[in-house]
Here is the input.
Amino acid sequence: MEKGISNIETIAANFKEMPLGNERFEKAVAGTFLCIELEKSVMPTGSRVSSKDMEEEIIKACFLIINTIHSPTQVANQPVYIITAQKNK
Here is the structure.
């Protein structure tokens, strides 16, 4: 492997086809980031991350928030948010 690094596996794929054996990843590298998530609410139907917390984590990952949209459309009666961000140079 380049530079003798052997504990990193590089995968380039469409996110819908990402071959994740344990259904998770540690790091993602991208120039543009798009997050579509269900907003944390008083009565969630599952584990949720609030848009505020997600923005904080995106900023910690050295991305610049371009836009946050709180969609009027709901999924399974749950509010949805969309965040677009770009990697800081």
Notes: Helices lie at 51-60.
